[in-house]
Known about the structure:
It is a single chain. The strands form four sheets. Strands 1-14-13-17-15-16 form a six-stranded mixed sheet. By secondary structure, it is an alpha/beta fold. It starts with 29 loop residues before the first strand and ends in a 10-residue tail after the last helix. Helix content is 29%, strand content 19%. It is built from 13 helices and 17 strands. The chain folds into three domains: 158 residues, no CATH class; 168 residues, Rossmann fold, CATH 3.40.50.11540; 60 residues, no CATH class.
Amino acid sequence: xxxxxxxxxxxxxxxxxxxxxxxxxxxxxxxxxPLPEVAYLYMSQHIGVPAKPVVAKGxxxxxxxxxxxxxxxxxxxxHATVAGKVTDITFKPHPVTGARTQVVVIQREGDDEWAPxxxxxxxxxxxxxxxxxxxxREAGTVGLGGAAFPTHVKLSPPKDKKVDAVILNGAExxxxxxxxxRLLMEKTKEVIEGLKIIMKCLGCKNxxxxxxxxxxxxxxxxxxxxxxxxxxxxxxxxxxxxxGAEHQLIKAxxxxxxxxxxxxxxxxxxxxNVSTTYAIYExxxxxxxxxxxxxSITGDGVExxxxxxxxxxxxxxxxxxxxxxxxxxxxxxxxxxxxxxxxPSIADAVTVKGTGGLLVMRNAGEWxxxxxxxxxxxxxxxxxxxxxxxxxxxxxxxxFQQAMEFNLMECKECGxxxxxxxxxxxxxxxxxxxKYELARQKARAQEAQKAKEAQKAQAAPAVTATAPK
Length: 469
């Protein structure tokens, strides 16, 4: 334990793999990835309504130019990540959801210049909270820890909800990933400035930085950057997954609990991870849209694990080749091993805003699952106090409504249960499938109700007005 640290902050449940894989890339400094010859920009790279293209085939665009307009509050703008020509607007399977999603294709041409009005220093001190939120919204900033929730919405709490704590999530508890760690090490000052921008935007005087104990150098560096500021505290956290999840982070640092179905605002807190906070700094301080992010390319399937600053929409195949993909590598995962999404092919996959890592594995064998033996390990590991064993059995047998009675929707799909399962049951997969089916049933019921109401309205006798006698 570090000198002066009395105890590590933590939470109930959770897991920690004996090998977390971070040593593969943690000492690799951030380097700029080659610019893509063609950028594929999905109009849905966030939670909420997909953006709508505001360019047409044949248009010439500059770097940072808005090409997708957010049509609703819970949505995010999309910007050109390279200068060039729009060669197509089509539909492709999304690398995370698998759903066919609209994509703007840009062939890189000309100089890598910013669009007019961008990349200009701003006077943050003179800004109001609304000014800050507007810059963040215009930059298309979303949560870069995986959820991709539009950041301007997160920074616009309801007037009846008071925020008294901002938490910077520097835990990076997902095995293998080191993109946030490298930002903490290389962009310490900028990340802390981003944290202060968030505090100003929310009118919040107190902030906390949570860093896991396996990153003592980052802990020391952040403490040095914070200095004597009495309003920012740096907390050392137990090394345990999912320490970086909002519920667990708030419990560990503030000692506050709230329901898994509730948002952190119910506990008076707002949480942003390191990559998001750096993106906020870039958007507010320099008026730079979110067009690139740090991606950890790691795993035993590459000879040269690294941390690259990658333009969003870059095909992953050349990135993997640059990391020297091994011949026997047979699985690529977007993200880490516990919450990541395995890719069926690398040929068509590209990075999106939420791509924090590309994990490449060798000798990833077939998943052989067996019947649940009721050992209870998943119950002990669940950080939300659920019974994953029971939920998986109910979901597998398609008793979805009964699963709802046992708090199916409170599952955050962190993967702790699947990791510890003696029978290697695909617990998270079964739960995800059940949630998808319930959502589909609800959508069908709503469509049927609308059709019924329309039919009823059509059958109703017309009422005509008569002139007074």
